[in-house]
Amino acid sequence: MPTPTKGARLGGSPAHEKLILSNLATSLFEHGAITTTAAKAKRLQPLAEQMITKAKRGDLNSRRQVMKRIKDKSVVHVLFTEIGERYADRSGGYTRITKLGPRKGDNAPMVKIELVEALADSPKAKKTAKKAPAKKAAAPQAEEKVEEKVEDAPVQDVVAGKFDNSAAPLEDGSAPEGYTIKGNEDSMKYHTTESPWYDQTVAEVWFKTEADAEAAGFAKAGETEDDK
Questions:
Q1: Where is the composition biased (Basic residues) (predicted)?
Q2: Per-residue model confidence (pLDDT) at position 7
Q3: Mean pLDDT to the nearest integer, 37-49
Q4: What is the spatial distance between Cα 128 and Cα 92, in angstroms, rounded to a whole number?
Q5: Is the Cβ–Cβ distance between 201 and 182 less than 8 Å?
Q6: What value does the mean pLDDT of the chain take?
Q7: What is the spatial distance between Cα 216 and Cα 27, in angstroms, rounded to a whole number?
Q8: Which residues pair with 76 in a beta bridge?
Q9: Angle, in degrees to the nearest 10, between helices 123-131 and 133-152
Q10: Class of 14-115 per CATH?
């Protein structure tokens, strides 16, 4: 009989915990960084590291093992063709966890887990730097301009053009004032405060009303057979 993992279980059952970690890994590989609770990040980190190691191997068996946990084929393709190659010269430590502080409401410790950059001294990186030194020097200025625009813009402007009448989570992962509906882009489901999965759901986008969420193409969690 398999030995259970130490610590509190995520979700209400082993199957629910497995689904939570799979969704978090999918979002991490798709966006490069996600904000979640410290407990979830600590459980996600070893799983993500194992998947990247399998992606570096690149064989069919490794791909099949990863697809048992990640159902989105486009994310699996990015993992094996881009992320795996990025860490070809790195032996481990592909992710980094940064503390963000407590979350408003339940005071849960929030963190940011992200994929670290590839080794700067790898042969491929050195070769690229010799070919295009001018472009590399101009990159920091472009990055500074982008950062200034994002910092000056209000929360609603950051997600403008993505979903109408929506807002992005605050830096600590909490909801902007007046927003109570949690939306998950991976499943395109939204959760109200009455939902049994509300506390376990990581909000990637917030809505004020159910009508706003449905207008953006989200369906209420629990109304289809897949949510049961």
A1: 125-134
A2: 61
A3: 91
A4: 23
A5: yes
A6: 77
A7: 20
A8: none
A9: 100
A10: alpha beta
Going from the C-alpha of 96 to that of each of 32, 57, 158, 177, the distances in angstroms are: 11, 22, 24, 30
**Crossing angle of helices 38-57 and 60-67, rounded to 10°:** 160
Does an H or E element contain 39, and which?
A: helix 38-57
Structure tokens at 67: 């697809």
Q: Could you tell me which of 84, 93, 88, 77 has the C-alpha nearest to residue 124? A: 88
**Residue 111's closest CA among 208, 178, 30, 43?**
43
- Distance in angstroms (rounded) separating the CA atoms of residues 30 and 79: 9
Domain coordinates in residue numbering, the chain: 14-115, 166-220
CA pseudo-torsion sign 29, 43, 5, 53: positive
CB atoms within 10 A of CB 197: 17
Per-residue pLDDT, 134: 52
Q: From start to end of the chain, where are the E strands?
A: 33-37, 95-102, 109-115, 166-167, 181-184, 189-191, 205-207, 219-220
The residue that leads in pLDDT, 18 or 158, is: 18
Residue type for 45, please?
A: Q
| Cα 188 from Cα 109, distance rounded (Å) | 26
Structure tokens at 167: 């807002």
- Nearest alpha-carbon partner for 202 in 31, 58, 7: 31
Strands (E), 159-207: 166-167, 181-184, 189-191, 205-207
61 phi/psi in degrees, rounded to 5: -65, -40
